[in-house]
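Notebook entry, structure prediction.
Reason for the run: the old model in the group folder had no record of what sequence produced it. Starting over properly, with the input documented here first.
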Amino acid sequence: MDSARPTETLHTKIIEDIRNKIVEGHWKPGHQLAKETELATRYGVARMTMNKVLTQLAQEGYVTRRKRSGTFVAQARVQSAVLEINNIGEEVAALGHSYSWTLLNSERRRMSQADLRALGVGRKVVEEEVLYLQGIHFAGNNPFCLETRAINLDVVPTALQMNFSKDVPGSWLLNTMPWSTARHQIRAVNASGRDAQLLDLPTGAACLEILRKTKIGTNWVTYARLLYPGEAHQLIAEFEPRAAGEAP
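New structure, fully documented this time:
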């Protein structure tokens, strides 16, 4: 047992040293750390020990580890109210980063069963023809959110006339379609497959998934899936105590 203590103590000291550099502002958000092997040499530890240090710091939210890119000081997290529909460009701007949008796919078609599952649609069949879109929101050079969206062309036929490689679909809908009701389903998921690749995340990385449905009257307008890297986003909600005898 005693032989393990020096390593454990050094592990703790390295974490504290890196954490202090971040907290005290010596390493700013977005700062890229040296390679894992270089850090291991600098601190005089095995690469495995350094890997454990960086993994713990990532779990604590101090750094972000990106496959192929390296390890970076984590950005401040965006805070969104649970029931609000936010403009993602404004979320990025609030962090002080430049915003951009890249459209990956745009198709006019019927939704498949795979589409329905991915977007959290409870219906077995959607008869309406849709414009099916997928793209990535960027904060600076980093993927910030992967958006997959189906727009009901029976309700929003003008969507076919839009150039969504230029106009961000969510922002355009917010500005042009006065939705009357919205539903959010929120859960933590692990990045996998193409999602992980598009967000430049390692397989299994924690993500926040928001499944959204908006309606005008009885007609649905859009189904959307927004997938955020876990370190980039958090949700907030405010509550007030219910008065005695008030119905829930």
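Summary: The longest strand covers residues 99-109.
The old model has been moved to the deprecated folder.
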